[in-house]
Amino acid sequence: MLKSYIVLLTILGCVPKLxxxxxxxxxxxxxxxxxxxxxxxxxxxxxEVSDVPGQIVNYVVRDSxxxxxxQKERITKGKFSFTAEVYETxxxxxxxxxxxxxxxxxxxxxxxxxxxxEAKRSDALGEAAKLKxxxxxxxxxxxxxxxxxxxxxxxxKREEEMRDTNEKTNSRVLIYSVFSICCLLGLATWQVLYxxxxxxxxxxxx
Length: 206
Hints:
Layout (H helix, E strand, L loop, with lengths): L1 H13 L4 E7 L4 E8 L4 E8 L5 E9 L4 E5 L4 E7 L4 E11 L8 E9 L1 H12 L4 H69 L5
Antiparallel strand pairs: 1-8, 2-7, 3-6, 3-8, 4-5, 4-7
């Protein structure tokens, strides 16, 4: 029992915690990052933008249909969060604005995003910090088990989608095959009748 408990804690420590990226944003430039998101998935982000005199940076989060999920102007450091209702591709865009007559300088942008169980896990770790060691470990195991259940659920859903796609493809291939055979039989019958008529006109056959 104790050995299994230690193994689970080790696995928990190996679970990826976050996704971070750092990039430079040119003056009056725009940079967007895209990522797929599952239905009912929580996304949390934390950003930090270097200060450049005379320039400001805004950010906006949109889905593929253009709906704004989160936005803020004149950012320096902060957080955002949102939840997608359906499977969707979202993008977060950072835009730099500055004076037209100023040479400007690049902003250094740091972005850390967490989604799904990773975002919930960060909340659980914050709660676990206030608990006793054994309670904190149990809390982490609870989050890990939720993550495993969610992964299996997503795998089952994808398997169902792939099976439905295969069944539809098989039915379409069958219909196409039957249609092709019917066309070939019709063409062959027409050729036989045409040649028979042609040979009769030429009096090559009775």
